[in-house]
Write a structure and sequence with these properties.
about 240 residues, alpha/beta, Rossmann fold, 7-stranded mixed β-sheet, two-stranded antiparallel sheet, 9 strands
């Protein structure tokens, strides 16, 4: 009788330890992801590297794809959209040159992963998504995971978020043919806009707004993102582009 009483708690403790280990399976994968995919490609900002290690990427993709979350590539998230490969997320985040107290606008919420990464690095994140199902699910996900400084909205990213402007920096995770003027207007002087520009041939650019309202543009690397669309446009067919 005494033996049984001892064995049951012992087995329960073993089960708890195994469950706890299973819950942390992704930490090692995230660390390898950062070292191999991100650091070796030149991303150096220690705050960006840390948040990429600490953000549970697998929570922002469909459950059946969880084990692929930390691989070097984009993944589908539904509605014909994708979550960008980890390197692109880290690179675009680093290009914003964040200090910690910024108010950020994101165009293209997607699954909420980029907003989650930004959440730990800035004061406030405002994120717009044109696909209602995506923004609704992202809002629930971000709240459940504790990202309390992220505000989401269903709307037209071309118009920005004028009620909350100006923004210290803006990041766009879909590709317009040209830079939307409202985004330039809503960017603070000295602020940065990181955006992929183009149709089939796209270039990731950093746009800096000067004190006199003029802008400077710097090309970074060729990329492929889903096109940035207006509400009247159809959502791209699944698989048309490879980044989001």
């Amino acid at each position: 009788m005494h033996q049984i009483k001892f064995v049951i708690p012992f087995l329960f403790c073993l089960f708890c330890a195994e469950e706890k280990t299973d819950e942390k399976w992704w930490h090692k994968k995230a660390a390898v992801m950062v070292e191999i995919q991100i650091e070796r490609r030149g991303v150096k900002d220690p705050r960006v590297l840390k948040v990429m290690r600490d953000t549970p990427r697998h929570r922002f993709i469909p459950p059946h794809l969880e084990k692929m979350a930390y691989l070097d590539g984009p993944l589908p998230i539904g509605e014909g959209q994708t979550i960008s490969q980890p390197y692109i997320v880290a690179l675009m985040t680093e290009l914003l040159a964040l200090k910690g107290d910024e108010k950020i606008l994101e165009i293209g919420t997607g699954s909420g992963y980029q907003a989650a990464v930004l959440s730990a690095l800035v004061s406030e994140v405002f994120s717009i998504e044109i696909v209602k199902n995506l923004v609704d699910s992202a809002a629930v996900r971000l709240d459940k995971l504790g990202y309390k400084n992220v505000t989401t909205r269903w709307g037209d990213g071309y118009k920005g978020w004028p009620e909350e402007a100006p923004f210290d920096a803006i990041i766009v995770t879909a590709a317009p043919d040209k830079i939307p003027q409202p985004l330039i207007d809503q960017l603070k002087a000295g602020g940065r806009l990181v955006v992929p520009i183009g149709a089939r041939q796209q270039e990731l650019k950093v746009i800096t707004k000067n004190e006199d309202g003029t802008i400077q543009s710097k090309n970074i690397i060729p990329v492929r993102f889903v096109p940035m669309v207006h509400p009247k446009d159809s959502i791209p067919i699944k698989g048309l582009e490879i980044e989001r």
